[in-house]
Fold each of these.
Amino acid sequence: MGLRVLHEDPRLIAVDKPSGQPVIPGRGAAGEGALVEQVSRHLESKAFVVHRIDRETSGIVLFAKDAAAHRELCLLFEAGRVEKTYQALVLGTVSRNGSIDKPLREFGSGRTGVAEGGKHSCTVYKVVESLRGATLLAVEPRTGRRHQIRAHLYSIGHPVLGDKLYGKPVPVGGAARLMLHAHRLRLGWGRSRLELESPLPKDFAAAIESFR
């Protein structure tokens, strides 16, 4: 599959990652299938990883083109000055907008869960559409913990559909994938404000349609 570039300027590149592709190579795996290697080939130089999304999640990923841009972007993410909005198709009916402010910690099993003594974590969500047995949410993680959206939504009884790690996997409209998509990203960059959007993938849109 060819690289889908959403934005490119002299210092950064934003690409649209498909579900199933890792951002970086996994343990013992060659880097050829990883997004960072694909971007590096496109640039014909090293791509610097700024942030990651889960392998099963689709959507926007940023890479820096040089070490200085990498430092600037990482500082923006660490300071919470990058606005991220995900689309999540979750199990059950979510009746109203809300927020989840529960501490999260990582466990040796690879899972993240709500636990006393965990790191402060906050996720805000808004109802986009109520469906039959499911709800489409716009989700904004205000902190950047591993699996934060998935673990937080699971904790309130509305796991992301297709999630094999949190909650029971549910077949969704023939789309055997995690129904989580990094949809929008906004940040101040240089003298302007960069606003990026990744359209919903066809399999995600089909899954939504199957619940209407």
Amino acid sequence: MISPTSLPIRSKKSIGERARDAVMELIARDELQAGDKLPSEAELSQMFNISRPTLREALKLLEQDGLIFTTHGRGRFISAAAALRVERPITAYESITSMLRELGYRPQTRIISVAEQPADKGAAQALRCRAGTPMVAVERLRFQGAEPLVYCVEIVRRDSLPEALDADIFKGSLNDLLEGKRKRPRMSSASVSAVELPKAIARVVGAKHAGPWLLITETCFTDGGEPVVFARDYHRGDAFSFNFSRR
């Protein structure tokens, strides 16, 4: 039985997208399973304090994503895709700092280098700018105590960062830093491969953690679709795993 508790709808998304997210929160909160029936439109509208047209927009988005389906004359039902609960899905965007904290680590950051440099061909293509555009390249190692966890190489346009580039500002979350320029990443396009660490970094972490490491190469975007970070994040292979669902 779904409890008729109003759910918060919060984010900078459209009202229809926020309503869609609220329905998904409801599905997760009440642990609904594939084939379970959603409440009626009237019940959902009252539950979320939204209009019928807004609710219908949300339900249409959910149907387009294959998360619910409609049976004529019977109502709307949860699909298998919506009922899947994948722990740490590889398709979900999250900052390295947030990821490590959610996994129970208390990460420390070692700054390897911070360099202002012109964009090479790869960075220019990823960040949709001309080759030679001023960039900042940041290399960081994340540790738990003496244990290396993630090696990150992040390239950001110089004008997306504060004027003063003290290396200490990169010890925290890069996403939070970009928030100051209203350029916080919200999503990314990524590829994944198993690799060896670059030799210079392999010497720093030692033979015990030589590899393989899981490399996620990604371009990170704002809500408005502006590319703001080109990153290569190496996750220690014996410390991390990612999951995914397929349909």
Amino acid sequence: MPLLEVKNLGSGYKNVPALHGISFQVEKGEILAMVGSNGAGKTTLLKTISGLLHPFAGEIIFEGIPIQGLEPHRIVEKGIVQVPEGRQLFGYLTVRQNLQIGSYMQEARDHRQETLRAIFDLFPMLAERQNQQARTLSGGEQQMLATARALMARPKLLMMDEPSWGLAPLLVSRLFETIRQINQQGCTILLVEQHVYQALSIANRGYVMERGHVVMEGESKGLLGDERLKESYLGM
């Protein structure tokens, strides 16, 4: 049974559809890359899974149970946590306070200190700067903090929305290596990205979206070797 299964999903904003019959699944323990250009509907997809948007049609099934229509905090309780595009940190709060906010659910609070130690092992810089205001961090450091805040909720599925947004190329490479490390520690990841090559390079499988439709899918190695994808997204 897939960890997450999306069936014929339609969603959008008010009466304007942005997703058209999207179907895919995420297996437990994998990195699944959902790639495509701006306007493809990737962020809309994550917002719908998170409960921030209500679907027009279709099903979202997590651990065998339909979750479409649930409020966002109920979806977090079930184990789906999103790292939003643009980080959306509390700038005037400290690094540590931002992390504590990530563990507001009861189960996460019960394991807060244990999770915090694991976070500081993964991101030593955050340990060094835990009393520093989040707004004073660099872009790469803020992305680390946004990711760490989501991990404080102890997710079963971590959804990452354009984590490389605004980062220099060197930092992008480091970021994707960190995502790989998080996955190796047992966290299933749904990765939404415009950096097609980097995302597919660390993913087990991938889907390509265009204008609210899935147009390609398969094992990452196969997609990276596909001539259509090379021409459309990799400039080859």
Amino acid sequence: MLPAGEAQFAYLNLSARREAVRVREKVDAWFEGYPEKSRDELVARFRSAIGDPHHSAFFELFLYHLRLARGRQVIEIEPALPHTTKSPDFLAENGARERFYLEAVQASGLSSQDVAARARLSTALVAIDTTPSPLHFLDLTVSGSPSQPHEAGPPIGIRRTPVMRIEPSQCIRPALKKKASRYGKLDHPYLVALNGLSTHHNEEAVIDALLGTPVMRISRGPNGEEIVEELRRSSAEGSADQTGANSHSCHCR
């Protein structure tokens, strides 16, 4: 885990660890192989002290070179569309020489408000951790996030966070939904590549995000027999089952 207040790029750029050096060498080589006319903007985002632009820039760079490594072409970066000023990340070609648009999206599960709150919390933690305290360290439990910047405030030895419910699909679904109709009607197929940044993201979470949360509905038939159905419930249906007073549902996972 990075120290509070240290951006991932700053660590990667300055670390003398062998692993970091290897990553730097690979990333530098990838940038050298990225089209020059689009390189500066991508480099600027990659060097960002804010996590989201840094991660999104790396993912676009990774997708570009993944296409090349598979022997496939990237026809154009941010191709212009006739009906909108917005542009997908890539116009690409598959093995059959069929063209499609490729869009990179990341699912961090954080809103812009969450990102700002984390930045304020990081500032507060840095202030605490840089206060000289040679004889003691703190066991810190963080609850919530500050709503406004803190004044500069002893080093932190232990930091705890509260228990929270983890629902990876709820992070993935908004990210996909945001990109699904972003460019309107297109003249080529449209492929969205998702970068799930949570350690809890997995294939099942993506399926849940696309098709709905697995639930089991148990009801009684006309003769009193028990009927068990395995279904999927979309996020729009909410947490309460609306199928009637004689049935109830529960999450399968």
